[in-house]
Write a structure and sequence with these properties.
- The complex is a heterodimer.
- Chain A is mainly α.
- Chain A contains 12 helices and no strands.
- In chain A, helix 5 packs across helix 8 and helix 5 packs parallel to helix 12.
- Helix content of chain B is 72%, strand content 0%.
- The N terminus of chain B is likely disordered.
- Chain B starts with 11 loop residues before the first helix and ends in a 7-residue tail after the last helix.
- Chain B is built from 12 helices and no strands.
- Classes of the chains: A mainly alpha, B mainly alpha.
- Chains A and B meet through helix 1, helix 6, helix 7, helix 8 and helix 10 of A and helix 6, helix 7, helix 10 and helix 12 of B.
Chain lengths: 326, 303
Amino acid sequence: MTFRPARQMIRRVAVQAIPTIFGIVALNFLLLNLMPGDAADAIAGMSGSATVETMEALRKSLGLDQSLITRFITYATGVVSFNFGTSSHYGAPVIDVIMGRLPNTLLLMLSAFFVAVTLGIVLGWIMAIFANKWLDRLLTAIVLLLYSAPGFWIGLMAIVLFSAHLGWLPSGGSETIGVEMTGLALARDRILHLILPALALATFFVAIYARLTRAAMLEVLRQDFMRAATAKGLHPLALQFRHALRNALIPVTTVAGLHLANLLSGAVVVETVFNWPGLGRLTMDSLAARDFNVLLGILLLSSIIVIVTNVIIDWVVMWLDPRIEI
Amino acid sequence: MTDVVADNSDSPIAGSVKAATSIMGTKRRALLVWLRDPFLCVATVLLIGVIAIAMAARLIYPTDPLDMVAPPLLWPGQDMDYPLGTDALGRDLAAGIVHGARVSLLVGFFAAFIGLVIGTTIGALAGYFGGIVDNLLVRLTELFQTIPAILLVIVILAIGNPSVFLIVLSIGLASWPMIARLARSQFMALREADFVMAARGLGYGTPRIIVREILPNALPTIVVATSVLVANGILAEAGLSFLNLGDPNQVSWGSLIGNGRTMLRTEWYLTALPGLAIILTVLSINIIGDRLTDILNPRSATR
């Protein structure tokens, strides 16, 4: 019996995840190649003028003279061996360029995700316990406000308040530049730089999880098994934790997986606000340089991250509710 | 950007079936709820106000909001001819916000409409036919949900020529999966309903059953869920214009925030005020959407 979930996981990866990844590779490649202008145009544009011969030589060196299908096959076979091609802008393998920035974005995303889930569940739980009392109404209004505000704007306003006026937190970057720090001082510096971007990215998702948790908790509290547990004299805290919260967590966990792609999208804008050296900044830089291979790599790698995390989340949901099969 | 309504996609079904059977009762109840709920009243008035301002923008401020009309960096209230102040180039911020409402609402509503049409079509086909059609369409939906949508939109906009049309199209193309999931669950539930069986017994064709029988019953729930797409479309447009990926010839709330950012530390009102415009608009859309969901789905009305 214990092997069943594992076998299901393998089947899911083989039947769903791999075709999805292939579909994304094909879609991204087609989309970018159907657009007017290519890397040779961009390189020529930056260096001023270029003759027809130079352009042809340039296209040949970048492999752009081959047919679309040949280029796709070359690209797709490369992807299988984690070879995403060479960046035309940085002149380095795409995988190296991306891996240099990925840790920063993951740090930002995971911090925001952690804040969003914890704060969202706690807020939603409080709202459900005090349902329709003044505290619930106040929190509902605040949560709706967070849900309606652009995260990057909240970030900008936070810079005005906490950096410009109060001077408590740095306004951008991921660490203080030009100061040699080690150990605890370095960790403190990085955390201080992380607080505002992570909170700005988290606000929208805090609102979503708070609303979801509140609705799910109210739904669970109405169930018969809750009345039965109360009747048998279960301690109120055990009732809340073991029965109510555990069941209310299922919708939140399921949805959290779907939101990863959105979280990554949000990170692009928030990174720009805070000059955070991650994938978002790399995207903007690569766009200016029309560095297609890097763009394809970012899109593909971020999609793979989302797929892998979703497989893990399915596992968590199955653990929370053994009735669910995937 | 995000799908809240799709998450409890199984619950609104009961609501819409009920709504279909007692449309008259629902209408009367809806009006009562509307009048009794101060939040809903304020939100509706606000949204109508924003729409009116957007439509009358050329009457209120006939000149191009990108024109320099006054001394630069006037603070709000400093000169009552320019009540919200001016930016570094002496452009009237009030005129910018009024004209920006046009782009924001246009993008929000039309992108949501595209998402509604694509999502309903795909969801209807998947839910009604089931089997291999369903399997393929669900896979397609998952594919679009896996790709970070804004990242894809950014790439499309940066490579193509940024125009309001392209922004609408790309946000619409990125936002349909949530509607498709909801429409699918609605159609799956409704295809077994008695009135559909009756229609089949009368010998109606499949297209007629889908469009004339099931769709009218599924649509109220789906349309209400689309309010989230409008709200998120406005937020997405703001983000894109903020990144300087919007139409350079059009003022939008996002581009105003982006322009004000360079003077964030001193003239922060240039960033704050357009953001407030976004919040008020999106907030009123969300309040209206929330309350309409409650009306359609009495089970969730736990307030």
